[in-house]
Design brief:
Blueprint: E1 13-20, H1 30-48, E2 53-55, E3 59-64, E4 67-80, E5 86-96, H2 114-118, H3 124-143, H4 149-154, E6 162-166, E7 173-180, E8 186-189, E9 195-198, E10 202-205
Antiparallel strand pairs: 1-5, 2-3, 3-4, 4-5, 6-7, 6-10, 7-8, 8-9
């Protein structure tokens, strides 16, 4: 995404894609990113024993030494059928697992691995199985019409924070992240008191 790469040394992470064919209305595609984030959080907490949170729109983060650090990135690439429904969706996951601190890449948001956070190596297979199991549970619930929004929204570190949102060539938006709507769009109120609805963009937390 944006000419960025997700790299990890051999055996150092979980980097995979899941192909889904939901047939949902296009707008419901946001649920897939929510489900994936919740699945990663659940897997980290159950296997690595570390509390994890979400950063809008598609990052999983850990609080390490008083600062939020990115441990996982998510990416969704979807296609629509002629009726405007989700014909297919490729969900990409990049999770830093057993990467020593000195091998972590330089990035705008400092990265971390589960090994660094937990102080021990983490077995990747149980982590992957836990992640896929939770993803399947969430997907089945969403397929039956149950939105993951409330649980996803409750995990966001972005809410209540001063943020800077960049979206391509558009001017950056600065303000207070007041919440998200039911489709996961970020609600940002600027200094003039206007509320903006942000569907996509890179978010920087300005308070930490």
């Amino acid at each position: 995404r944006l000419d960025r790469r997700w790299e990890a040394p051999p055996g150092g992470g979980l980097l995979f894609s899941a192909l889904l064919r939901p047939g949902w209305p296009a707008r419901q595609g946001a649920w897939l990113t929510m489900l994936a984030g919740l699945a990663v959080v659940a897997a980290i907490e159950s296997v690595a024993g570390r509390p994890a949170r979400l950063k809008w729109p598609n990052d999983v983060v850990l609080d390490h030494d008083g600062a939020w650090r990115k441990v996982c990135g998510l990416l969704l690439d979807s296609t629509l059928d002629p009726a405007g429904r989700l014909e297919s969706a490729i969900l990409g996951v990049g999770l830093n697992v057993n990467i020593p601190a000195e091998q972590l890449p330089v990035a705008p948001m400092p990265p971390i691995s589960l090994q660094v956070a937990a102080g021990r190596p983490i077995a990747r297979r149980p982590l992957l199985l836990a992640l896929l199991d939770r993803l399947e549970q969430g997907y089945d619930a969403a397929d039956a019409g149950q939105s993951p929004w409330a649980e996803w929204n409750a995990r966001l570190i972005t809410i209540g924070q001063a943020v800077r949102v960049s979206a391509g060539s558009s001017a950056a938006l600065e303000g207070l992240a007041e919440g998200t709507d039911e489709w996961g769009q970020l609600l940002v109120r600027d200094a003039a008191g206007r509320q903006h609805v942000v569907a996509a963009g890179d978010v920087t937390l300005r308070d930490r």
